Amino acid sequence: MARQRDLLLDKINDATVDVAIIGGGINGAVTAAALSAAGVSAALFDRGDFSSFTSQESSNLVWGGFKYMQSYEFRLVRKLCQSRNRLIDAYPSQVEPVEFLATFDTKSPYPVWLAGLGAVAYWAIGNFQTARPRVLRSGTIEEIEPVIDTANAKGGLLYADAYLPDNDARFTFGFIKRAIDRGVLAANYTEVVGAEFDEKLWTVKLRDVLDGSERTLRARTIVNATGPFLDGMNERLEVTTRHRIAHSKGVHLVVPKIGSGKRVFAFFDEDERLYYVIPMGDRSVIGTTDTRVDDPNTEVTAEDRDFVLRQINTRLDLDSPLTVDDIIAERCGVRPLVVEASSNHEDTDWLQLSRKHEIEIDRNRGVVSIFGGKLTDCLNVGEEVLDALAELGIQSNRLDDSWFGEPPASDRSKFFARIHANEHVDDDTAELLWRRYGNRANYVVDRIVADPALAEAMWEEPRYLKAELVEIGEHEMIARVDDFLRRRTSLSLTEHGDELNDRIPEISELLGVTPAPA
Questions:
Q1: Checking CA distances to 125, which of 12, 290, 442, 449 falls within 20 to 30 Å?
Q2: Cβ neighbours of residue 43 under 8 Å, at least 6 residues apart?
Q3: Are strands 243-256 and 283-287 parallel, antiparallel or unpaired?
Q4: Strands (E), 182-242
Q5: Average pLDDT, stretch 164-189?
Q6: Is 326:255 a contact under the CB 8 Å cutoff?
């Protein structure tokens, strides 16, 4: 049986589409989903796996950006809050509200009362859709989360945003899967090796990174969604833009669970920027850093680890300080920040650079470039790219909110009625299956009905059934084991490497891929 990736690669060869999307991170993913829903033919490809760069290194937060209130970017905050609200409404299983507990000590740059006023303004900017903020006394902080060191605390603040209980890369893949189901031709591990424009059509030459085979695709327009690599791709496409990308390295460390695991902790670090402890199942994610870099290919340094661990050990009352031996996994990515191409930002306060995105159109060569972008703002990006393509003559159907979101509540009710009638899995597992697959959860259950041995759990926390691995292997474009461990799930972030490596042969067999980690 041909696998989904092979089938799509065959269809890409010699195809002609309206739009070729280069880059399979969150920007490319939402573009593909929006175009497919609007009836626009499109192809999407990435030289690595989907979401294998910046879009797998986020904080997993879906938020309006309370910290951007510090730089008075109220318009950006308003836009992000609106997008956050849409995502919460559209993905009730995948985007969960979460409390933020911010602690202010004697070195914090703002008094608690001022932060409280800011939180009320933030709540209002977000149309009061989240829980009402509250100012807390130090004693209350200690009651709620005893692990927080309140010796020097002046008080705290409780406010609300949202986060992804699974992971950013899986959420991104959901848009790609939706686009594929609607006819988009998509392939991971497929790089652009050449692109020529004859004033009517682009001829794009592609190479399969896995086997070296080449294919050709023709497209009326191109969307450059390569994130931190956008400037280099535009050079290859001979496109000149008003903006360029600046790179900011962000590091998160995954450690054993800190505190209750029910809320995000927020502090001001020694550089007076916000620092977080974020729940990830039975783990916690701590960070982040914000370091100017020239090369988007980055790694975690000893200095990064020391900085992140120092912040957490200084602000928490732990039984023993966290050390590098406590680190289970590391996340390191670059934020593609938007700056004016003609400006020199070497002397600019790095933290004051805006986190907004920009869409640029090259009408002569038929190219749309997406600068910046955040997971929270993804819906706006998809819709704005569709509008930009309309200016290039790409006609589309009217787009409504059905292009994103989970299946309707009636479908969920039918799924759980099936679970209750047949008892193939328990309710808690059914909740996980629905969150991860939506209506495709029925296919996972079908596999268990056909082979009850597939109901066995490969992991308990987080819980994954053998049937899920088979389903993911066949229908989620898995080419390498790491695609599953790092991006379709977050197992390589939450589980110790030695434990995973011991199970690679069994994982590979269920996925149907070569038994070697990437």
A1: 290
A2: 12, 15, 17, 19, 20, 21, 184, 185, 186, 217, 219
A3: antiparallel
A4: 185-187, 190-197, 202-208, 214-224
A5: 97
A6: yes
The predicted-structure confidence for 21-70, as pLDDT tens digits, reads as follows 999 999 999 999 999 999 999 999 999 999 999 999 999 999 998 988 88
Q: How confident is the model at residue 1 (pLDDT cuts 50, 70, 90)?
A: very low
413 phi and psi angles, rounded to 5 deg = -60, -40
Backbone angles phi, psi at 138, to 5 degrees: -60, -40
Beta strand 153-163 with 291-293: parallel, antiparallel or unpaired? Answer: unpaired
- What residue type is 497 in one-letter code? G
Rg (CA), the chain: 23
Q: What's the farthest any 2 CA atoms get from each other in the chain?
A: 69
For tokens 């933020």, name the residue. 100
DSSP state string for 439-505? GGHHHHHHHHHH-GGGGSEEEETTEEEHHHHHHHHHHS---SHHIIIIIIS-HHHHS-HHHHHHTHH
Sign of CA dihedral 407, 408, 409, 411: negative
Chain segment 276-314, per-residue pLDDT in tens: 999 999 999 999 998 999 999 999 999 999 999 999 999
DSSP string, 301-357: -HHHHHHHHHHHHHHB--SS---GGG--EEEEEEEEEEEETT---TTS-GGGS----
Predicted local distance difference test score (pLDDT) of residue 3: 80
Indicate the SS3 state at residue 299: coil
**pLDDT tens, residue by residue, 335-374:** 999 999 887 766 555 566 778 899 999 999 999 999 998 9
